[in-house]
Amino acid sequence: MMKGSTTIHVVQHLAPGGLEALALNMLSYSPNSDDVLIISLEGTKEAAIKKWPRLAQVQDQLLFLEKPSGYSLKTLRQLYKVFRTLKPRVVHTHHIGPVIYGAIAARLSGVKVRIHTEHDAWHLSSRKHRSLQSLAIKIAKPKLVADAALVRDQIRKQLNVNSVTVIKNGIDCSTFTPGSKEAARQALSLPIDQVLVGTAGRLEPVKGQDVLIQALCSLPKNVHLAIAGDGSERNRLKTLVNQLGLENRITFLGLVDDMPQFYQSLDLFCLPSRSEGFPLSTLEAQSCGIPAIATDVGATAETLCPETGTLVASENPLALASGILREMYGNNDVSPREFVLEHNDIKTMIKAYHSLAEEKSA
């Protein structure tokens, strides 16, 4: 094991998702990445790697506690023992479950620097969640971080906490770069001569791919849709495609290993979600020079370049189609990459967290 680890991140589970990808990036791009460990409260290493092969690259820096459903005193004891053994300098928790278990165990075990990041605050509308998280914060006394201004405002309102630092999520801008559109389309077997709109994410109801598929009915026939990702909705979405007669206008790519190449193949990236925190996919696409359109949910607006991005109402195929048409025929020569470089480079984000860790607690 990694005795002497300086930073331990605690997440609820390790499955493909924005929060989880961010934790992995914070491990990979930390100046001393060998001194970083990620603890997943739920699941097993074998199952996680099978679903997300990327984890195999850092499997020696992953620990799974196999937490059962419901409250688990055993999980709290496990974390306490891990922290007492490894003596981390920083314990960084992400979302409500990890702050209840990880931050409290960190304080009880004597960890001096405790940081908690909220990646969205929708769960605080639940009175139970609000009470639990408020209690955990009072006991653990972590430094609170919000990944968006919207999330900071919700934390202040719902938890009556004023000291919240905003550190916006970052991506690796040296990986997500512009590239050859034609080469990318050839590599992914996508149409060369069509207007290509793409979306990426888990195929689950919350991601709204069904709304985007319906929007395609109102778009010119030279518009093709590429969908990257997999999930429980795959068969239902394919059935919808068949019902609408769109089989020749949509490509389901499944899980894509080379996401920069996927974004490079596009003319426009679309995020049609019903709910979001602070999404990374819009940042990744824009870092590749691809303009983005997204639904106005969560803090998505904060991820869009104000000069090239378009925000539309959720659950509205016609509004989405109209926004796509505006993007298609707009004459904007500005690259959204500059916006991401300025506001959302992962190196800047990690520096901000390191600076926060060095600050003395009030």
TrEMBL record:
Coiled coil: none annotated. Residues 16-174 form the Glycosyltransferase subfamily 4-like N-terminal domain. Pfam families: Glyco_transf_4 (PF13439), Glycos_transf_1 (PF00534). It comes from the Bacteria. InterPro entries: Glyco_trans_1, Glyco_trans_4-like_N. Residues 181-325 form the Glycosyl transferase family domain. Keywords: Glycosyltransferase, Transferase. This is Glycosyltransferase. It comes from Vibrio orientalis CIP 102891 = ATCC 33934. The lineage of its organism: Bacteria, Pseudomonadati, Pseudomonadota, Gammaproteobacteria, Vibrionales.
